[in-house]
Task: structure prediction
Amino acid sequence: MMKIALCDDERKILDDVSLRIKKYAESRDCLELEVFGFDSVKSIEDALDEGKLFDVYILDVYIGDELGTTLAGKIRKRGIESPIIFLTTSIEHAPESFETNTLRYLVKPLDNSKFCEAMDAAILAAEKAGEKLIKLKTENGVESINVNHIIYSEAHAHYQYVTLDGDKQLRVRMTVSELYTLLAKNGGFVRSGSAYIINLRNVRNVSTSEVHMCNNITIPIPRGKHSEIKKAFWDFQYEG
Result:
């Protein structure tokens, strides 16, 4: 099931677009979409800080006193590559919206055929982004995991405990080196000491002695490794 983040400060628009998405999904056989509505920039940022990730973002350009284009820039700085669709009554901010690699810019009132076309493109782009999948052999069998949803892993004995967004945890029987080699192929991962592997996509900040993750977990930084980890974090943010 794909998760759609919809952000608009008007309840009427949230309800209307949510209904359009529902009807769109019904018109595409076997397509399951779940819509998460947000009425402010803060509410969607809080969700991202909690480690929640979405496959498609649909943002109003004017969200209260803030700009959706600014929010899109913040989303990109988190390393999130999911497609973004803008909804607006004005084309004034269209040029700056494309600086964040915006997929579509739709003018209200929405034309349903153009909306469905934009959704088709967004689903296709989200599926392509979702190709960053790895297979992990867990106690429940082999699971396909999108690396973007991994927050960090921690080693205990002969197992790696992989924490995903939503506080889901997988126990994988492999060494730290084996798991890191697998994850590093997708970029955006760094080791912290002998026990931790950190997904830089989900790092909120790096202090002198700890890495602060988006789910409010802190991971210790070994002595002498602060500069290396902080550089990896900022390099990834810049590239993202």
Notes: Residues 112-129 form the longest helix (18 residues). The mean pLDDT is 89. Helices lie at 11-27, 41-49, 68-77, 94-97, 112-129, 176-184, 226-239. The longest strand covers residues 150-156.
